[in-house]
Amino acid sequence: MRISPTQVSLTLSATAPEATSEVTLTNDSSSSVLVTIRFEDFSATALGTPQLGAAASRYSLKKWIRTSTPEFTLEPGASRKVDLRVTNEAELAPGGHYTALVVTQSSPEAAAGEKNVQLRDALVSSIFLVKEGGESPRLGVGDFVLEHSLFSLSSTQSVQLLNLGNTQVVPRGTVQIIDPLGNLVAKGTINNESSILLPESGRLYVSELNQIAEATVPGNYRTEVAFRYDGRDEYTIAYQSSFLLPLNIFLLISAAGVVVLLICIRMSVRYWKRR
Predict the structure, then answer these.
(1) Dihedral pair phi/psi, residue 244, rounded to 5°
(2) At 98, which helix (H) or strand (E)?
(3) What is the pLDDT of residues 28-54, one digit of tens each?
(4) Is 192 in the same domain as 175?
(5) Is the separation of the CB atoms in 44 and 117 below 8 Å?
(6) CATH code of 158's domain
(7) 187 φ, ψ (degrees, to nearest 5)
(8) How far is CA 164 from CA 27, 62, 169, 189, in A?
């Protein structure tokens, strides 16, 4: 069984009576399938993984969305469109709302009440709606520090972005590592997957860093995060600094220390021989 698309975005204007869309289910198996459709609230982990069965929040769409085909049988090789309808009621507040369309599959014998009928894996499509007339997108950044080992930069950089508004957004951004002389040494992109950040939530984005130059200068390295969301062109920039002692400098200092130590030992030996 396949579901398409796996993510639906709807816009409901303040004066429109409703917003509609649809998903398509296709039975790729060789047997008939009893399809049952329901809507569930979901949340997201700190890394953005969706989790079904969350407690309803004020951004839940579950109460407001309907389909005219909550259950049907799908024959082998057949496809069927499932309609989605959100009515513009006064209690549906402006801003972002979301829910999950969950498709449960079983054999038609389940409808006849037969026992020991095993359910198949469920399919999920995420449904997002923005009701116009009061939406307030706002994106911020949490704490972040330069990721590095004792002597070198990491190949990744984690940045927590915070959705401080009342509607879901798609964050965009870059992270740059700049050495004490102002030279760019590494750069990465935030949210290559174009994932959605739920309202009043945060997510930790891990960016792969492309090395531009070697980190060879000791001192404070600046992590520069520039971020925005889809629909906004202007970037907000945040900085953090961390001290880094590159390996080449550490080895140089260590070698110099060894040389100084050897000189001191040699001078001490000569001094005691003269006495």
Answers:
(1) -135, 130
(2) strand 95-106
(3) 989 999 999 999 999 999 888 888 988
(4) yes
(5) no
(6) 2.60.40.10
(7) -150, 145
(8) 41, 22, 10, 21
Q: Are residues 8 and 102 in the same domain?
A: yes
For the chain, how many structural domains are there in total? 2
The answer for residues whose C-beta is within 8 angstroms of residue 131's C-beta and 6 or more apart is 12, 14, 88, 92, 93, 94, 95, 97
The range of the structural domain enclosing residue 229 comes to 139-247
Token pair listed for 84: 């989605």
pLDDT computed for residue 154 by the predictor: 84
Residue 265 lies in a domain: no
Hey, which residues does 174 pair with through a beta bridge? Answer: 189, 226
| Bridge partner residues of 65 (DSSP) | 86
Average pLDDT, the chain: 87
pLDDT of residue 251: 52
pLDDT in tens, 218-234: 888 899 999 999 999 99
Distance CA 44, CA 195 (A): 11
Domain end (from 131, 152, 173): 131
> What's the pLDDT at 256?
55
Q: Considering the domain boundaries, does residue 48 fall inside one?
A: yes
Give the per-residue SS3 of 49-83: CEEECCCCCCCECCCCEECCCCEEEECCCCEEEEE
Considering the domain architecture, whether residues 119 and 221 belong to the same structural domain is answered as no
* Exposed / middle / buried, residue 102 (Cβ in 10 Å: 0-12, 13-18, 19+): middle
Does residue 96 share a domain with residue 205? Answer: no
Nearest of 89, 88, 228, 204 to residue 145 by alpha carbon: 204
Do 127 and 35 share a domain, yes or no? yes
Does residue 254 lie in a domain region? no
